């Protein structure tokens, strides 16, 4: 266990340092720095855990032109620096959660028994209280598959102007499988891409959204920074769509933390609960998006979720449901394919029956508290969001307010802006005074 914790600490620190470098550096430099750091960080993690043994081919070029979609980013939304990463803790949320087996405190034989689930890991938690009602290997590292798109969405929704557009790159347009059919060089509305991401799990939309931050590497760095702020220390993102990649992993516990953040984000729930929509691939050519999450219609009280699957990851699922004022989160990793909905339903049914009756096995930790500098930046971003943002296509800008960000030294952005603006105003005033004196002396 000590070796596992040490590996987690080294991996988390190295990956987060790469994220900081990617955020602070120009996009062209960010890709090479992040890749170099991540190659160093994955080795100890892979040696310490059987969860991160993926040998999938790394994706080709991560970086894109800085001009690709910078207009899609809400003013003041992108941080430029971050504090150091904390070490991984396998007892995060409580000592019982360090177990690699089933963790549940059954009160008596008269109460419903926890259902058996053919999955390597799961968590059932109360989103309101943060109590973990039951779990199995909650901190074990597994491949997330498309459930990682929840992290992609909660990271980028507060940063990108939903009414702006971004240009699909060749990298985004050639992602396989499971895509909406993006065409390289064409403009796509940010909100449409989020809807495709969360309804049909469009892998090409995930790449386009990550690149809309300025570059692929910057988008990934932001995702890892968001995971750090949520204290999701078992999570390392390498691909925004969750396709298998070396060194990419998450845990059932972390996915519950991520889902809890998603529940607090109305824009996420709006995209995620869309049952059907149309997506314009090119002029006069539309495709219909039909939500893959059948729990939305088949499970009473369901309010959103995300499914995933790859051969290596197996079936994965993140679900959220509300009954009688109680909101539960269920996460399942490495499950037998085509059974994830069945067992998610059983776990939720058990959770609703036992909530308040079973002693919690642990708790979902709260996000790291935002510093004053971050709150000031969020306030400034909200003010800027009231102005139309420039879009790279024909879509008019009308950004939403930004209330969620990252635990970063984002106050530097505000400070730099204010100082620059103040100096510009002083210089302009001096120039006008000089011109008046010149006019007075010449009689002009």
Globally, the shape reads globular
- The figure for the number of domains is 2
* Average pLDDT reading: 76
DSSP strand count:
11
Derived from helix and strand composition plus strand pairing, the structural class reads alpha+beta
SSE string: HHEEEHEHEHHHHHEEHEEEHEHH
Helix count from the secondary structure assignment:
13
| Uncertain regions spanning at least 5 consecutive residues | 1-70, 79-87, 376-444
Q: What distance separates the N and C termini?
A: 83 Å
- The appropriate CATH architecture of the largest domain is 3-Layer(aba) Sandwich
As a percent range, the share of strand residues is: 15-25%
Structure description:
The protein has about 450 residues and is α+β, with helices and mostly antiparallel strands. The chain has helices at about 1-25, 25-50, 150-155, 170-175, 190-200, 205-210, 215-230, 250-265, 265-270, 295-300, 340-355, 370-385, 410-440; strands at about 100-105, 120-125, 130-135, 165, 185-190, 275-280, 285-290, 300-310, 315-325, 325-335, 360-365. The protein folds into two domains: about 1-75 and about 85-365, Beta-lactamase; about 370-440, no CATH class. It is built from 13 helices and eleven strands. Strands 1, 2, 3, 8, 9, 10 and 11 form a seven-stranded antiparallel β-sheet that branches. A two-stranded antiparallel ribbon has the order 4-5. A two-stranded antiparallel ribbon has the order 6-7.
